[in-house]
Amino acid sequence: MSSGIVFHAVAALAYAVLAVSLWRRLASTDGIQHAGRVARTCLTGALFLQGVALYQSVLGGPYLFIGWALAMSAAIWLGMVIFWLESLVVRIDGLLLLLLPAAAFVCALAGAFPQGQVVPHANSSWLRVHLVIALMAYGLMTVAAVQAMLMALLDRHLHRPVEEGQGASLMGKVLDVQPPLLMQERLLFRIISVGFAVLTLTVITGSVASYMLTQRMLPFDHKTVFTLLSWLTFGVLLLGRYLKGWRGRVALRWTLSGFALLLLAYTGSRFVLEVLLHRS
């Protein structure tokens, strides 16, 4: 068993324990506001464990190694780092109730499905830069997608309150500790704006790296097609926001559509090849 698998398993356990702790605190008290400092400290430790797991899995050998589950782990790790930095400025501790279970699940997947492939031409500096920037873009858009799903849930709750009962009471507490919708919308578009800029750099560095290695600027493959479709989707969203003031459900649909396309650009195809077809 590789050290990457072990660290991913330990990170998954750390995220799960923290998630259970916050959910139990939420169910037994009026909120999780008193757990903010402790939660961020524990989150720092879990992020460190996952970071070590990614380093050992992707960079631990003489070559770059990547797979669909490792790509998801890297994206969620970068997203959690962004959340951690954002939480130092804005009180958004309530988002941990959703982010922690997602992080635990993805780390468990990375430990259970460590398959992947050695990245060809990994000695190319342009390719290394491109991969780092691409993972940053995936991480930013992952956070945006989680944020959009939470905002959709809050919007639905405001228009159709849940029924009374224990489950409804717990869901009501979850929604009560979330930041206001207007604050979340500003945060969402700030993340999308930065993510779009990084995604643009991903396309540019990918084109340069592809030309240096294969003499083709934009190879016609699934990664390029889905990445460009995602880039176009987020670009239209930001343009619609600037020109027509898009917000609410329209913005959420465009955000989730762009993220789905970006997910298919790499993770979805690798999942089909490595898990369903057992190919690398």
Structural class: mainly alpha
The H/E string reads HHEHHEHHHHH
Can you tell me the residue ranges where pLDDT is under 50 for at least 5 consecutive residues? Answer: 271-280
**Mind describing the biggest β-sheet?**
2 strands, antiparallel
Shape: flat
Distance between the ends:
19 Å
Number of helices: 9
- The count of DSSP E runs of length 2 or more, i.e. the number of strands, is 2
Radius of gyration: 19 Å
Average pLDDT, all residues: 78
Binned, the helix content reads over 70%
Structural commentary:
By secondary structure, the chain is mainly alpha-helical. It contains nine helices and two strands, in the order ααβααβααααα. It is flat and about 60 Å long. The two termini are 19 Å apart. 37% of the residues are buried.
Topology at a glance:
Elements: H1 3-28, H2 36-59, E1 65-66, H3 68-87, H4 96-112, E2 117-118, H5 125-159, H6 166-176, H7 181-214, H8 222-244, H9 248-276
Antiparallel strand pairs: 1-2
Helix pairs in contact: 1-2, 1-4, 2-3, 3-4, 3-5, 3-9, 5-7, 5-9, 7-8, 8-9
In short:
The protein has helices spanning 3-28, 36-59, 68-87, 96-112, 125-159, 166-176, 181-214, 222-244, 248-276, and strands at 65-66, 117-118.
